[in-house]
Design a protein that fits this description.
β8 (256-259) and β9 (262-265) form a beta hairpin. By secondary structure, the chain is α/β, with parallel strands linked by helices. α3 (83-91) packs parallel to α4 and α5 crosses α7. Mean pLDDT is 92; it is low at 1-12. The chain has 13 helices and 13 strands. It has helices at 21-40, 68-71, 83-91, 114-122, 140-147, 163-169, 175-191, 213-223, 240-246, 275-278, 304-307, 309-313, 316-326; strands at residues 3-4, 51-54, 99-102, 127-132, 153-157, 198-205, 227-232, 256-259, 262-265, 279-282, 287-289, 302-303, 345-346. Helix content is 33%, strand content 15%. Strands 1, 2, 3, 4, 5, 6, 7, 10, 11, 12 and 13 form an eleven-stranded mixed β-sheet that branches.
């Protein structure tokens, strides 16, 4: 974290949730499951997920070059999750997950029922976070609906502090609409006497964005953003030429090392994947995959829209995936995963740029 704006003095219409007794017990069960599974190398699931990622839609108006959707390589149907479908899935999970992340592939705000989905989950003792390119919030009504929905955190996917820099990666994006969208959220929070959603600017450190780090920190203050974080960039294409084009030259500002003409993730060799024992991803159509790095839905472990999420969570397909992982049988999607990564976020104040 580089900069945090103090929010003291604001009244909040959506105070942070306090885990209830069932959620606390479930959290303890999850911890026990993780420990026993790691030792025995057999997957043991005692509770329900403490975190869930739900994909509102696979549609997106941008063409980011290291996103499967932007590259046209998603290889699964475009669609959006309807509210009634979400409600069915959400109601089947008890106790309620502590955290709901509303993103995956696509721009979540393109789902017209998004605010309704946020409100339903937030009303049931859950922190709801949303990652977005924010352009659609240039519509003031949409911004107001989101602020009033109970959203806990809005993550701005914004790389660069100028129109020219922003458009190099966010291909097809409109920097002016991003600025208007942020201002709409900030103004709506003031009108609603709320400090939520917390606004987090997530700034990817590409070679071409480094020169605007200081400018971005100044803009964060001017715009009323609560905090700005600098994140190492992920590559979809790990070839030598792609990394040389996009990644910073400074080793400290990237998550990869070049080995034999391929970029390889830099992380601990003995890391343990907690995600597949504590969370899952529900795609827009209700199918479930183990984590967000299965972007094309290659490892579907069940259809929660048909059988309900709990059946999938403890079902034989998901358990087989967990068992294989514990025994060292790991698919290609694991090679680019951030589990065990030490420099996912960077503090440029301590790095010479």
């Amino acid at each position: 974290m580089i900069f945090r704006k103090a929010t003291a003095g604001h009244n909040s219409s959506h105070p942070p949730k306090i885990p209830n007794s069932r959620q606390i017990v479930n959290l303890l069960k999850t911890g026990i499951s993780l420990g026993l599974s790691r030792v025995s190398r057999e997957p043991l699931i005692l509770g329900s997920p403490i975190m869930l990622m739900v994909e509102p839609t696979t549609a997106c108006q941008l063409k980011c070059p290291h996103c499967p959707t932007g590259r046209g390589e998603l290889n699964r149907p475009e669609g959006r999750m309807k509210f009634e479908q979400f409600k069915f899935l959400w109601d089947s999970i008890q106790p309620t997950p502590l955290l709901l992340q509303l993103w995956n592939q696509g721009e979540p705000l393109l789902n017209p029922e998004l605010a309704k989905i946020v409100n339903y989950a937030a009303s049931q003792n859950c922190w709801v976070t949303l990652s977005s390119n924010v352009e659609l919030l240039a519509d003031r009504h949409k911004a107001d609906s989101l602020v009033q929905s109970g959203l806990y955190e809005l993550i701005l996917s914004l790389d660069g502090a100028s129109k020219e820099t922003y458009s190099q990666y966010r291909v097809g994006g409109d920097f002016e609409r991003v600025w208007i969208g942020i201002q709409n959220v900030v103004q709506s929070r003031k009108l609603n006497r709320s400090k939520y959603p917390i606004i987090t600017w997530q700034y990817l450190l590409f070679k071409h964005t480094l020169a605007e780090v200081e400018k971005a920190k100044r803009l964060a203050k001017e715009w009323g953003v609560d905090k700005i974080v600098f994140k190492t960039a992920q590559l979809e294409d790990l070839s030598k030429s792609e990394g040389q084009r996009w990644l910073p030259d400074q080793s400290e500002l990237r998550r990869y090392d070049l080995k034999k003409d391929r970029w390889q993730l830099r992380r601990s060799s003995n890391y343990f994947c907690k995600r597949i024992f504590s969370s899952a991803v529900i795609q827009w159509d209700g199918t479930v995959v183990p984590c967000c790095f299965d972007k094309t839905g290659e490892f579907i472990v069940g259809d929660a829209a048909v059988v309900g999420f709990p059946v999938v969570w403890s079902g034989k397909e998901f358990q087989a995936f967990r068992r294989n992982w514990l025994r060292g049988i790991r698919p290609e999607i694991c090679s680019n995963c951030t589990e065990g990564l030490k420099n996912l976020y960077v503090n440029p104040r301590f790095v010479e740029i």
